[in-house]
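Protein in question filed below.

…
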Amino acid sequence: MQRVSVSSIEVSGGFGLPIGPFSERVSVVYPVGGGFFRQSAKGWQWGASAHFVFGEQIKEPGFASNLLPLIAGDGSFPGIAATFQGIMTGGWLGKVLPIGKPNGNSGFALRFGAGYLSTWYDLRASGGLIPQLAAPYDKGYDRLSTGFYLSQWLGYQLMSNNQSINFYFGLEVVQGFQEHLRVYQYDIGTLPTGFRSDVWIGLKAGWFFPLYPRSKREYIDFK
């Protein structure tokens, strides 16, 4: 297969390990989502994507400590789970560097992205209603922040000759620069100020579906 100009739909996912101050708040993050991109005959790529980000554990010291012990409206003692969540939407520019087999559309690839990032903590209680977490008090714990992010991805892309196997995988670094939106944090009694930097590094892989145009054919009727 020669190098082609084609549009593709992709689905992707991976995991990232927080570094720096972000590692003191969250253990692991998992971005999952998809997007659309265009590849030129010279190997240039550009596209847009959207991802949901979630984490499995909140590590921030003192988080929600003033809620313990939890007592629901019916007098029970429900359990509580706190997770990290977020959304990422943006665009990116990349380049495929062919290395020979199986064709000129496969090889090492680079992507540089930027866009919008919003993150928050999600608190969920099992059992009855907890007055301390009912609206609008839940906003005093969710650490909602918004801003922009930059990303860099380096990996390998395969676009098969038979058009059935098309994927990429590689290493990604994401830098988020966000501003606190809440004016008060009930659990630690402070006013969040300034910007926060959330940085993680990890693996990202995706499967994409090229949208090849139908070949033009001419039919001649000799009747």
Observations:
- The beta strands are 6-19, 29-39, 44-55, 80-98, 107-125, 145-159, 166-180, 195-210.
